Amino acid sequence: LINDQSCTYLKTPAGIFTEVTLPINEIISDIEAKGSSINTAKIAFTCYNKEESEYKFGTPQTLLMIHKDEMFTFFEKNKLTDDISSFYAAYNHTYNRYEYSNISRLITYCDSKREESENWNKVVLIPVTTITDSNSYIVNFRHDFSLNSVRLVGGEDQIKVRVITSKFN
Fold this sequence. Notes:
Elements: E1 7-12, E2 18-21, H1 24-34, E3 37-46, E4 62-67, H2 71-76, E5 86-92, E6 97-100, H3 104-112, E7 122-132, E8 138-143, E9 148-153, E10 161-166
Antiparallel strand pairs: 1-9, 2-7, 3-6, 3-10, 4-5, 4-7, 5-6, 7-8
């Protein structure tokens, strides 16, 4: 068990994923107080620079972010991301992070699960590989079984959800 609040790890093929608790209460309270609605919400997970080591591991190239309650059925039923409860992001080499550009529907989805699940505000980051067809459309996601490891910046003050709202009069 790794108990370090400043970071989190993703390791394949070991199956070490990261659970993220989204600040849904704060976001929804702020929106309701302003009488506004969500336009977009962005979140990024930054990687620590890799330490020099004689053992070189790759960086997972694609991360699936999925509501915790759906992480098993997603793979069992060969689902694709729906941009509601599941999203994927490619590793951004320039900024050394994984960026999810609009998770506003995930925020609404999580809020709707408040009464149904103890995991209502939790998502899991899972390294995956994508399977594409001849037209380069993604047709399947699979667990990444290559030898990869990355340490992500963690902690409440390190990861920000940027929400853009609007209010109509």
